[in-house]
Amino acid sequence: MRRKASLILLALAVFFAALSPLLRWYAFPRLAKIPAGQYQDMVLEAKDATLLDYGTMKARKVSKVTVVQTLKGDVEASERIERTAGRDVVVWDSLSYVQGPDGKMVSKLPERYIFDAHSQEPVHATGESVDGDPVTRQGIEFKWPFRTEKRDYEYFDAQTRTSAPIHYKGTRTFRGVKVYYFEQTIPWTKVKFPKVMPVQGVTPQSLAKTGTTRWYTTVRRFWVEPVTGAPVYGEESHKEELRGGTLLGGRDKVTAFSGDVKMREDYIRHTVDLVKSNRTLVLMMTSYLPWGFLLLGAALLALSLYLEARGRRPGEPAPASAGRRPRARQRLSRAFVYRVGSAVAGSSGHGCLG
After folding, report:
1. For residues 212 and 248, what is the distance between their CA atoms, to the nearest angstrom?
2. Bridge partners of 184?
3. Positive or negative, the Cα torsion across 203, 132, 75, 92?
4. Contact present, 109 and 115 (Cβ < 8 Å)
5. Can you give the pTM of this predicted structure?
6. Which of 206, 285, 311, 345 has a CA 20 to 30 Å removed from the CA of 162?
7. 95 has which bridge partners?
8. If pLDDT is split at 50, 70 and 90, which confidence band does 200 have?
9. pLDDT digits (tens, 9 = 90+) for 56-97
10. How far is CA 82 from the centre of its chain?
11. Are residues 271 and 177 in contact, defined by beta-carbon separation less than 8 angstroms?
């Protein structure tokens, strides 16, 4: 019975020991992915910012500029691209909507971002665009890969339509969460005007005729939780200028926007809580369960070996059977019965004759 139990335990030990690396290195890369139908929004604010008044074409200080960012997954487009790409694909429709303190639109920038659901690498397919213009992204955007590494990444900048390194600057703690801090600087670069302008009747084509150009620079900062690859906080020191042309009335340049754009406090708390929850799920696949199965397999192996060793230990000699007697005693018993039997037979004969 012990030997049978030890074999069962040995089989279970091998099963759990083999399951540990399979879960981490085979199952996790295939199961961990961004859902195709995900929707999320984010509100950022730039307090005490500088904003261009297009009515007077003069920059003025304002109390607050609000940026609303939304990401919406297009499931149908994802499934259509997957049939030709041969892998899991996510299609995000993003919109950055900027409004002034009066609630009126300052600018808006739509994007379509197509990427691999597992690795977050861009997937080049029809529809990939920024403000309606086709683009070919290189590097990541919005999210880092699962199991983010301590290294630089290529990060796509929607304003310039180009990718540039975003540098790993060290490990920090943000709201009780261990994070990797990344920073990217985009130098002053000439960029396109948005296709939808805040002034009715003004278009990029009409602005081009004036000879006025738009320039942009930013310092982008992200605090990224490395297990999930999700930013728990982000901010930008963002500046835009209009330069040259007849629109400025002889001035060389005018500030169109300048401010430090930061996540609003309620969205910081929500994001931190969400990332903590998702972090636990990822750790279950990459750490808790693989190590737990490995330790369980070792414990089962030790118990199996213990039972096997006990099953082979010499036991005590079995007691003699109650129905068997030693041979010498048996011979004495037979002689005694013979003599007694003869005596009994002799006495019985005398009684009959007499």
Report:
1. 8
2. 220
3. negative
4. no
5. 0.81
6. 206
7. 70, 110
8. confident
9. 889 999 999 999 999 999 999 999 999 998 899 999 999 999
10. 21
11. no
